[in-house]
Amino acid sequence: MTDDVRLYRSTTNTVIAIGAWVAVTAGAALVVLLGATRSTQQLWALVPLALIALLVGELFWRPRIIWDEKSITLVNPYATTTVPWTMVVDIDTRFALTVVTPSRRYRSSAAPAAGALTMPRGGRDSLGPDQKGGVLRKSDALGTDSGDAAYIIRGAWHRLVESEAIPLGRAGSDRARVHVHVTALALSLLLAAATVPALLNL
């Protein structure tokens, strides 16, 4: 077994983040231009734009899934959860890719389930007990964020199980670790609080 670390990030979220940042950057440039030519009061608009840029980063760019031979880590907005493979009993996709343990379910923002407008591509069935009555659940189909991530991660999990790399009998004793992104949370709250007077001063 190697020490390789794998990573999954939603293509949809990445496109949204980049597009939003381009729009925010253009808006900030316009605000600075107007502030230089008309009134510096316009510069107050930079505060809500900064808040939007930060929220885009937290909600769309930061989320990802990382795994190695010891654990799977769900990097979500404002918190990161690391779950040892010894605790995993299932990988679900009902609302988003979800790591199921005997005591809790840990959901990933990096792989949301398919929405009403999502058109998954057909082809290969996913792994795991997620086909009800022989019908492939939409959130488990390839071509969706949740389905693609589940296919990859289930494959990694099954390989670890088959190679006997996951110790047995530790599901009840091992614990997941949660790390709150304190700096990002504090900065978001600060910018949110500053946005109200900034808008009033426009």
Automatic annotation (TrEMBL):
Ranges for region Disordered: 115-141
Segments crossing the lipid bilayer: 12-36, 42-61, 178-200
Entry superkingdom: Bacteria
Keyword set includes Transmembrane helix: yes
Keywords carried by this UniProt record: Membrane, Transmembrane, Transmembrane helix
Name of the molecule in the record: PH domain-containing protein
Species this protein is from: Microbacterium laevaniformans
